[in-house]
């Protein structure tokens, strides 16, 4: 029932997956990595992990916003 309505408005399963769900999941992953990076900075044990998490999270969010 719902698949037919999605096909009628022009969004098939493939387009739904790659244009809606994948960017959404990558955005959530970016926010999660930023949060983990801030937590690492708060704990203050390993600053290299902080830099890695923050850079990866920010890169995911910036590239998703541009794409």
From TrEMBL:
Transmembrane helix is among the record's keywords: yes
**What are the transmembrane regions?**
6-38, 50-66
What keywords is this UniProt entry annotated with?
Membrane, Transmembrane, Transmembrane helix
Protein name from the UniProt record? Uncharacterized protein
Q: Which species is this UniProt entry from?
A: Rossellomorea vietnamensis
């Amino acid at each position: 029932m719902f698949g037919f309505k999605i096909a009628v408005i022009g969004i098939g399963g493939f387009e739904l997956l790659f244009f809606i769900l994948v960017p959404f999941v990558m955005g959530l992953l970016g926010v999660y990595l930023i949060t983990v990076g801030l937590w690492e900075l708060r704990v203050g044990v390993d600053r290299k992990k902080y830099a890695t998490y923050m850079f990866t999270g920010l890169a995911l969010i910036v590239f998703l916003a541009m794409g």
